Amino acid sequence: MSLQHFLADQLQDKQQLLDLIAQAIDIKTNPSKYAQALAGKSVVMLFEKPSLRTHISFDIGIEKLGGHSLYIGQQNGQLGERERVSDVAKNLACWADAIVARVFKQTVLDEMAEHAGIPVINALSDLYHPCQALADYMALTETFGSVENLNIAYIGDGNNVSNSLMLMGSILGANVTVITPQGYEPDTSLVAKAQDLASKSGAKLTVSTNIEDAKNQQVIYTDTWISMGDDTKVEQLLEKFMPYQINSELMATAGASAVMHCQPAHLEQEITTEVFDSEQSIAFLQAENRMWAQNSVLVSLFK
Question: Which positions are catalytic?
Answer without folding.
Answer: 102, 129, 132, 223, 262, 290
